[in-house]
Each structure stands twice: as C-alpha cells, then as structure tokens.
C-alpha cells in the first residue's frame, strides 16, 4: 500500500474472444480491485495490431484509476485480471490476446525494475494509447516524456476508429 491514493492510467487491449466484452469486463474488474476505483475511462477504439498483421484488429481503451495499491501491487492485480480473462503469457510479443492490461503512468513516478517500467515503454509512439489517454487526461504530464497533448501531435492517428460511446 502507498501513503495515500494515486492516480494511475491503465491501458486496456484485446483482440480475441469478443474484444469489446473483454474490455468492458476488465473495466468492471478494475473497479472491483481493493483500495482502487475507476475514475474515468475512454471510449473504445479499434485499430490494426502493432505486431504481426495476420491477427484480428485490437480494441483499446485507457482507464484512470485512483488506487492505494503500490505500483507492484497494482501490477500484480492487473495481471490477475488478465489471467481471469484467459490471458496466457507465452513469451511472445505483440501477438493476439484475450486481454492486455498495462500500467501506463503511476502518479508522477518513474520505475525501471525487472517486470515493471513506468511510464510504459513505447507510450510516446503508440496512437492506440495516446488517443484514449488524451481523451480522459489531456493535461497529463507523462514523467520524463512531457505532455500527452504534445506526444499526441507526433503520432499518426489515422488508423484508430472510435467504436462506441463507452466513455464516462
């Protein structure tokens, strides 16, 4: 536990087993975590896969959570949600998955340790992260990288399509 609540931003992605339902269930599971509540989440976006193109498109979103869990505890909790929703970690990168939950930002903290890097590596180059993040936190400063709005201007957003009005 931390000394108080922090705002963390969680990236959500899925391209298997009804991706929209996977994301919506993950949002409910995040809300149910101990000492954690979902403050806001973005709309859902459809986009081509980052890695091999011979897989279904992804559905992505970002959630802001207020949590008293420390970063390692939050990581453990989101990995548990992934497992509950059928995620298996086979060592492959950028492949198809039922659910991928990533801690994008954890307060104003920078973390670089085995198994946990925050801000998430690649955040500044990924429109499927930056677009939904800017939707819910346009003024956010990503530690060590700068303002979300500035980062967003540097990426091509043309492949993202909003697929619903799930934002709150």
Describe this structure in words.
This protein is of the alpha+beta class and 168 residues long. The protein has a single domain, classed as 2-Layer Sandwich (Alpha-Beta Plaits). Helices cover 26% and strands 28% of the residues. It is built from four helices and ten strands, in the order E-H-E-E-E-H-E-E-E-H-E-E-H-E. It has helices at residues 19-31, 71-84, 127-136, 148-153; strands spanning 6-14, 36-41, 45-47, 58-67, 100-106, 111-113, 116-118, 141-142, 146-147, 161-162. Strands 1, 2, 3, 4, 5 and 10 form a six-stranded antiparallel beta sheet that branches. A hairpin with a 2-residue loop joins strand 6 (111-113) and strand 7 (116-118). The radius of gyration is 15 Å and the shape is globular.
Number of strands: 10
Percentage of residues assigned to helices: 25-40%
| CA-CA gap between termini | 27 Å
The low-confidence parts are: none
Total count of domains: 1
- For this structure, the CATH topology is Alpha-Beta Plaits
Globally, the shape reads globular
Averaged pLDDT, please? Answer: 90
Q: Helix count?
A: 4
- At CATH level 2, the architecture is 2-Layer Sandwich
Could you name the CATH class?
Answer: Alpha Beta
Largest sheet: 6 strands, antiparallel
Radius of gyration: 15 Å
N-to-C series of helices and strands: EHEEEHEEEHEEHE
The CATH homologous superfamily corresponds to 7,8-Dihydro-6-hydroxymethylpterin-pyrophosphokinase HPPK
> How would you name the oligomeric state of the polypeptide chains in this document?
single chain
């Amino acid at each position: 536990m931390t000394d108080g609540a922090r705002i963390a931003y969680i990236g959500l992605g899925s391209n298997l087993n009804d991706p929209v339902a996977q994301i919506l269930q993950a949002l409910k599971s995040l809300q149910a975590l101990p000492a954690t509540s979902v403050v806001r989440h973005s709309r859902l976006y459809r986009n081509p896969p980052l890695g091999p193109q011979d897989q279904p498109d992804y559905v992505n979103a970002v959630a802001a959570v207020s949590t008293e869990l420390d970063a390692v505890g939050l990581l453990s909790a989101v990995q548990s949600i992934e497992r509950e929703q059928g995620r298996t970690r086979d060592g492959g990168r950028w492949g198809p998955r039922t659910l991928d939950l990533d801690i994008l930002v954890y307060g104003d903290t920078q973390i670089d340790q085995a198994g946990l890097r925050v801000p998430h590596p690649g955040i500044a180059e990924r429109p499927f992260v930056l677009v939904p993040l800017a939707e819910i936190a346009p003024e956010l400063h990503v530690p060590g990288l700068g303002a979300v709005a500035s980062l967003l201007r540097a990426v091509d957003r043309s492949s993202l399509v909003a697929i619903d009005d799930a934002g709150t």
